[in-house]
Design goal:
seven-stranded mixed sheet; alpha/beta; 10 helices; 7 strands
């Protein structure tokens, strides 16, 4: 069972899904900002993370997300990294159940993968499993955050999982990458990434994703992979007007 925090606002529901190795607290500030603007913001912990029970699996995470969606009236999905991959897959399977999809620093599930991309993906799991346990949270934090607040949060969050757990979660994430050049997102889409995000192929692939979908990519200056922690106010300045248009 997944743990979630519901702001209980009267406005449109917005479901916030976090990244691999993180937890729903990465959305604490953004949830408050959305609530201040009248939205019913819901953040939750994926299976295998924080207060949720059981190991992580894609199917368990999608089922848990489905349970939250079922309790809302066509919510808007916001996903960071793994949360974005899961949200993409949920929209692909259940497009009529949601109103829109916003992505923060996530890989493009249906985007093309180069030979180098495939090699790096195949090497990441064994690398993470063999990495020095004591230094892994700091290494992952430096790869994810660009501000003191982001680094502080990321190091603590990543420290809650063992290297094996994180490696297995990352491996499960890669199963969501399924190139399909003909696929287009069937609901309104918003794409955001931090200008300093060097995770995977996001900085290279997201501009191509935006072009394929015919939308504008939004880059959060001075933010890293976890832009919603590095600069939640800047993320809200992009997200809130878009959410308002979907409400209208």
């Amino acid at each position: 069972m997944s743990v979630f925090v519901d702001a209980r606002g009267t406005g449109s529901p917005v479901i916030l899904s976090h990244g691999a190795g993180a937890d729903s607290r990465m959305f604490t500030a953004l949830q408050q900002l959305l609530s201040d603007f009248g939205f019913r913001a819901i953040r939750w912990d994926l299976p295998g993370h924080a207060g949720s029970h059981g190991p992580f699996s894609v199917s368990a995470a999608l089922d848990a997300l489905g349970e939250i969606v079922a309790g809302c009236d066509r919510p808007l999905l916001v996903g960071q990294s793994l949360g974005g991959n899961l949200s993409q897959e949920f929209v692909r399977r259940h497009p009529s159940s949601v109103r829109g999809l916003a992505i923060i620093g996530s890989a493009w599930n249906q985007g093309p993968l180069t030979g180098l991309d495939r090699v790096l993906l195949s090497l990441t799991r064994p690398f993470l499993r063999s990495a020095r346990e004591a230094g892994l949270p700091q290494m992952m934090a430096k790869a994810s955050a660009a501000t003191p607040a982001g680094l502080l949060y990321a190091e603590k969050a990543f420290g809650a999982l063992s290297r094996r757990e994180f490696a297995d979660i990352f491996h499960a994430t890669t199963t969501l990458l399924d190139p399909d050049p003909a696929y287009r997102t069937p609901v309104p889409l918003l794409l955001m990434r931090g200008s300093l995000d060097r995770t995977g192929n996001i900085s290279r692939a997201m501009p191509r994703w935006a072009a394929a979908e015919g939308i504008t990519e939004h880059v959060i200056g001075g933010a890293g992979h976890i832009a919603n922690v590095d600069d939640p106010a800047a993320v809200a300045r992009v997200l809130v007007p878009w959410l308002r248009t979907l409400e209208a």
